[in-house]
């Protein structure tokens, strides 16, 4: 019913566009140059004013009605619901809705049936209401807009203003989503920290929230606050990131230097996209590459020289992750190195410097801030990487800096905490939000530093 | 440098007036950029310790010829150079020639000042460092000071040698680039429109500097300014459409040129 209404409004909008156009042209007898705005702008104006308010009303109706319906039902059945807590109340409303509009009902009873009837009649009324409102708005808008179209009417200004607000709306969506995610992280973390002291979380050396019987699940009163120490996870994250950067930073940088200053155009045209394909490989593919090929290889090499290498090791995960982020480093650094003006290279060559001297002493110092920010972005990418570590480094939260042992990272633990059926009201699952917040703060700090460095770089020349 | 006797000075003056030694010589120089030919058999001699100006309308090949003189065109992959260019009688395009050494002997100053994003001191010290010209810090300091003095920049920057070279004014930056070129003790300095990005006052200073540098260095300068060519050069070569139209003493070129195109150009009738 409502979907037909929306479709009708869209058709009206399209029709209004053509009507507005032709009326604008007709109003000046075909001499378009006499119009203040282009015919198309008159058309857009009419389409917007005819369909826009009505569509907006439908959207608001869609968002607002469930809440209004719920509160009406609640007030009508206030007596029956008086003793219900929040979860039961939600279950009641969910079931009543399911009976009314179809769906899976867990425990039907008479009150719910009665509530369902109310829901259904409320819904019918609201649909008639919104249809009437939308049609009135559309009709009113159409007539108002149609009457305004005249040679001197400034349709362009109206259209431009609407476009501006539309763009603002789009950017708001991204911003609001971010804010929403951050707020949900913060609130869940606050709940978590009300059970687990923040000191225990940040500085505790022991991490095993999966061991539910020692107190992580069950009643909130029994929570063992000693098993939520994030230090082993941070240590594991740092260890793997360090190994990854040990591979990615030099290899990526050298590749960037080759591409920007040594490779011929033809080699560059082929090599750069090929290198960037590395970035397009799904991380899970790297993951089984790490688990099935690299980790056993390191294990074999370790055994042959008498070292005890775990079958899942930080080394294997770090090395593969390093290979994965090579294209980040090389592609970003290549852009930065290319941005160093050719005149500096010429100046250096004109003084008799060789190519490698020029790169070492002029180009790299000039590009250094940009390279640093590229490396920091690669680090934040490595810190956030999950799949490779799950598959190649294991799940054991060992507090170690030995790269040959199994370690785990913040992201991996978030995954394992939230895999499977979970209730989101235990310290165990809330720990995932606290870890997420921690990770967010770390990567945010890295990004801020990277941005600062880039800003400084921009000031340097020009 | 040994003390010049009066007779020696006279001898030198006579040399400059009559037949100065030829420092660089181009014979039948051709340049192709891909399929497009930019220079057609240019024969031009560059006399020692004089300023030779290359003039001509845009795209006439004068910068291309200049860049052939220290093989800066090598950095452009599609560029091919033909003919012979010699420095003190040695073919500079001989495979045995080390291009790094050549560029240390034939320095270059570019159109737009291009100081490195380093301190003023490091800008000058760059060349001596990469060529290992100095044994210790004191010698390097001395080279930096004398280069800046020769470029008439010392008094303006002596108190802020550690500040970035990019913070200087445009004219100071260009003199810094000249000082940087001088620091490696070149024999020839090539200048590609060195004043085109400068205001008239900075231009006057650089021109004055060029005139002084002539005592120690052979200078080839590309310029779009007829007045500049007349003011600073002893010899002028006129290029047009990739050909050398004519060359000769600057006085003669500007008062009584042989070729009508030269006359039209210097009087502003085309270009």
Q: Roughly what percent helix of chain A?
A: over 70%
Unreliable sequence segments of chain A: 213-220
CATH architecture of the largest domain in chain A: Orthogonal Bundle
Class by SSE composition of chain B: alpha/beta
Q: What does the average pLDDT of chain A come to?
A: 83
Number of domains of chain B: 1
Apparent shape of chain A: flat
How is this structure best described in words?
The complex is a heterodimer of chains A (462) and B (271). With 462 residues, chain A is mainly alpha-helical. Chain A is 77% helix and 0% strand. Residues 213-220 of chain A have low confidence and may be disordered. Chain A folds into 2 domains: 2-170, no CATH class; 226-461, MetI-like fold. Chain B is an alpha/beta fold and 271 residues long. Chain B has a single domain, classed as P-loop containing nucleotide triphosphate hydrolases (Rossmann fold, 3-Layer(aba) Sandwich). Helices cover 38% and strands 25% of the residues of chain B. The model of chain B has no long low-confidence stretch (mean pLDDT 87).
Quick structural summary:
Chain A has 462 residues and is mainly α.
Keywords:
heterodimer; A: 462 residues; mainly alpha; MetI-like fold; 2 domains; 16 helices; B: 271 residues; alpha/beta; Rossmann fold; 25% strand; globular
Topology:
The complex is a heterodimer of chains A (462) and B (271).
Chain A: H1 2-27, H2 39-76, H3 78-81, H4 86-101, H5 110-148, H6 155-195, H7 198-203, H8 231-262, H9 265-280, H10 283-304, H11 314-339, H12 342-350, H13 355-384, H14 387-392, H15 410-418, H16 427-460
Helix pairs in contact in A: 1-2, 1-5, 2-5, 2-6, 4-5, 6-16, 8-11, 8-13, 9-11, 10-11, 11-13, 12-13, 13-16, 15-16
Chain B: H1 6-17, E1 22-33, E2 36-47, E3 51-55, H2 62-68, E4 79-87, E5 90-91, H3 99-105, E6 106-109, H4 120-131, H5 137-150, H6 154-157, H7 170-182, E7 188-192, H8 200-213, E8 218-222, H9 226-232, E9 235-240, E10 243-249, H10 250-255, H11 260-266
Parallel strand pairs in B: 3-8, 3-9, 6-7, 7-8
Antiparallel strand pairs in B: 1-2, 1-4, 4-5, 9-10
Helix pairs in contact in B: 4-5, 4-7, 5-7, 7-8
């Amino acid at each position: 019913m409502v979907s037909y209404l929306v479709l009708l409004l869209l058709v009206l909008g399209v029709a209004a566009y053509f009507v507005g156009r032709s009326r604008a042209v007709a109003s000046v007898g075909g001499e378009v140059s006499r119009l203040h705005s282009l015919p198309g702008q008159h058309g857009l104006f009419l389409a917007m004013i005819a369909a826009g308010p009505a569509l907006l009303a439908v959207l608001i109706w869609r968002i607002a009605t469930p809440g209004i319906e719920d509160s009406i039902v609640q007030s009508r059945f206030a007596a029956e619901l008086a003793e219900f807590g929040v979860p039961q109340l939600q279950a009641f409303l969910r079931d009543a809705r399911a009976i009314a509009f179809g769906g899976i009902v867990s425990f039907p009873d008479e009150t719910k049936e009665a509530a369902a009837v109310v829901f259904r009649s409320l819904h019918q009324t609201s649909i008639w209401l919104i249809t009437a409102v939308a049609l009135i708005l559309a009709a009113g808008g159409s007539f108002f807009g149609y009457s305004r179209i005249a040679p001197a009417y400034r349709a362009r200004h109206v259209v431009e203003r609407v476009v501006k607000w539309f763009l603002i709306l789009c950017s708001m969506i991204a911003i609001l989503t971010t804010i929403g995610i951050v707020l949900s992280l913060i609130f869940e973390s606050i709940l978590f920290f009300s059970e687990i002291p923040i000191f225990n979380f940040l500085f505790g050396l022991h991490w095993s929230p999966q061991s539910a019987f020692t107190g992580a699940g069950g009643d909130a009163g029994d929570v063992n606050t000693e098993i939520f120490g994030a230090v082993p996870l941070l240590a594991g994250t740092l260890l793997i990131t360090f190994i990854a950067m040990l591979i990615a930073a030099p290899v990526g940088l050298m590749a960037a230097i080759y591409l920007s200053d040594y490779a011929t155009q033809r080699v560059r045209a082929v090599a750069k996209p090929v290198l960037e394909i590395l970035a397009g490989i799904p991380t899970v593919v790297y993951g089984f590459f790490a688990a099935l090929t690299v980790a056993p290889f390191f294990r074999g090499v370790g055994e042959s020289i008498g070292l005890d290498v775990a079958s899942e090791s930080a080394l294997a995960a770090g090395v593969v992750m390093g290979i994965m982020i090579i294209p980040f480093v090389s592609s970003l650094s290549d852009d930065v190195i290319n941005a160093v003006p050719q005149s500096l290279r010429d100046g250096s060559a004109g003084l008799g410097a060789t190519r490698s001297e020029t790169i070492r002493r002029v180009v790299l110092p000039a590009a250094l801030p940009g390279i640093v920010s590229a490396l920091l972005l690669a680090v934040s990418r490595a810190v956030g990487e999950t799949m490779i570590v799950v598959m190649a480094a294991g799940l054991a939260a060992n507090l170690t800096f030995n790269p040959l042992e199994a370690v785990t990272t913040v992201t991996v633990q978030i995954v394992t905490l939230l895999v499977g059926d979970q209730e989101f009201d235990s310290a165990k699952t809330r720990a995932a939000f606290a870890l997420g917040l921690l990770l967010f703060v770390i990567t945010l700090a890295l990004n801020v530093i990277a941005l600062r460095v880039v800003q400084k770089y921009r000031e340097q020349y020009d | 440098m040994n003390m010049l006797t009066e007779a020696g000075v006279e001898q030198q003056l006579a040399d400059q007036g009559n037949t100065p030694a030829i420092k660089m010589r181009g014979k039948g120089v051709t340049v192709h950029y891909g399929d497009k030919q930019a220079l057609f058999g240019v024969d031009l001699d560059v006399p020692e310790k004089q300023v030779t100006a290359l003039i001509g309308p845009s795209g006439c090949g004068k910068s291309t010829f200049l860049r052939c003189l220290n093989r800066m065109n090598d950095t452009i992959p599609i560029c091919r150079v033909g003919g012979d260019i010699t420095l003190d009688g040695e073919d500079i395009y001989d495979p045995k020639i080390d291009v790094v050494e050549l560029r240390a002997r034939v320095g270059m100053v570019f159109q737009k000042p291009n100081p490195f994003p380093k301190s003023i001191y490091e800008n000058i010290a760059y060349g001596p460092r990469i060529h290992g010209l100095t044994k210790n810090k004191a010698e390097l300091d001395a080279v930096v000071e004398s280069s800046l003095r020769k470029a008439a920049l010392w008094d303006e920057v002596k108190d802020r040698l550690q500040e970035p070279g990019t913070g200087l004014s445009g004219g100071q930056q260009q003199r810094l680039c000249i000082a940087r070129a001088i620091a490696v003790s070149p024999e020839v300095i090539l200048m590609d429109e060195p004043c085109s990005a400068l205001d008239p006052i900075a231009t006057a200073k650089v021109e004055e500097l060029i005139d002084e540098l002539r005592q120690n260095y052979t200078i080839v300068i590309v310029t779009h300014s007829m007045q500049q060519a007349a003011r600073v050069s002893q010899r002028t070569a006129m290029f047009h459409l990739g050909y050398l139209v004519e060359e000769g003493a600057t006085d003669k070129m500007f008062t009584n040129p042989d070729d009508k195109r030269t006359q039209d150009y210097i009087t502003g009738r085309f270009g």
